[in-house]
Amino acid sequence: MKTIAILGSTGSIGTQTLEVVRSNPDLKVAALAAGSSVEKLEAQVREFRPGVVGMWSPEAARDLKARISDLDVKVVSGMEGLLEIAVLPEISVLVTAIVGMIGIRPTVAAIEAGKDIALANKETLVTAGHIIMPLARKRGVSILPVDSEHSAIFQSLNGEPSGRIEKILLTASGGPFRGMKREQLARMQVEDALKHPNWSMGRKITVDSSTLVNKGLEVMEAGWLFDVEPDRIQVVVHPQSILHSAVQFVDGAVIGQMGVPDMKLPIQYALFYPDRRPMGGRRVDLFELGRLTFEKPDTETFPGLELAYRAARLGGSMPTVFNAANEKAVALFLEKRISYLQIPELIESAMEEHAVIEDPTVEQILETERLTYEWIAGRIS
Ligand code: NDP
Ligand code: MG
Fold it and tell me: Among 63, 309, 328, 378, which residue's Cβ finds the most Cβ atoms within 10 Å?
């Protein structure tokens, strides 16, 4: 029996993690947490019977508590609640499936308490990788990637040390706007950006896929996970999303992982590593596919990727600015308050404005996030 907790259980990754739990009876869920989706969380509590549940907002927590008063479940809220769940003695793995830097503190707490992390929340590594990775090594805990590309790299490495990596080939679908030029992008609306060709994901990451900012965040995520500098991570556009990424080793061998696009595979792999469990579902049919294609990313039309490389090379607090500026800009775009092309423009100007803090503490990261949000809000109002 393996006991886990899921932060962000009502989201895209969270619900797919629960699907994996449904088909693996030896997984037990000790705790679940979400932002404000009370009804969804109630249904999950009734099905999975965790001992503790968390809601970010105190009102939602009160509401949930009233709804499940017939059950013996502890309801917690806010950051305190997330931190309590992260260190529950009965869990061995924390699944971080929330969006944004809110994930940093619970992740750090869980590592300090010796829990392995099944990490979907990429913003945590992007902004605090310099804190998370050394701490994980010190405590002897594993950071198991859930992000499909990073899981593919992890599966391809299969335990080989990072010294044997010549290059990482990080694949990208190119998103719904692949092949378009700036004039066309200028007209793109929220509905267009939310139509991802291959993956069904949360709203924020779907927009990030269309701008290639998601790929930029993944370059930084891969850098921390596999100890490789950004210039040895090559983004390869692969519209079919069948090769989920590959490693080019020092002897020239390229080993990659293929499969149909389905997040349940990387989730299950992270939960049972080093075991590989059976899983149903569709299979790759090479004859039906006929061919797989690869192209260079168009960084002129999609400057988000280049900005991410710039942030990664500068390091320190700059990835936080890149990430926070993007979060705020995407939120404004989803509220239809800015145009699509303003997303990368705002990221670039926020980065230009910022003086890098080397080796920032968690407090400095969160303060940088706050200042970046504020700066962008000031520019827009
Ligand atoms: P969603 O938006 O679908 O889900 C986010 C989840 O986090 C929801 O359960 C939400 O609850 C919860 N949440 C939000 N804010 C808080 C908070 N303050 N406290 C507690 N819970 C909170 O996101 P995704 O599942 O798409 O993405 C999650 C993470 O995984 C992101 O970092 C993303 O980049 C990464 N990722 C996602 C992939 C995907 O396929 N979706 C692929 C690879 C990585 P509520 O429902 O109440 O709002
Ligand atoms: Mg990904």
Answer: 328
CB of 327 shorter than 6 A to ligand 1: no
pLDDT tens readout for residues 242-258: 999 999 999 999 999 99
**Domain end call among 300, 328, 360:** 300
Flag whether 360 is in a domain.
yes
Please tell me if the CB atom of residue 35 comes closer than 6 angstroms to any atom of ligand 1: yes
For the CA of 34, the nearest atom of ligand 1 = 21
C-alpha dihedral over 153, 154, 159, 161, to 10 degrees? 50
Q: Looking at residue 242, what is its pLDDT?
A: 98
Rounded mean pLDDT, 350-354? 98
pTM of the model: 0.97
Distance between CA 208 and CA 205 in Å, rounded? 5
For residue 230, what are the domain limits?
Answer: 148-260+282-300
- Count: domains in the chain: 3
Average pLDDT over residues 54-74: 98
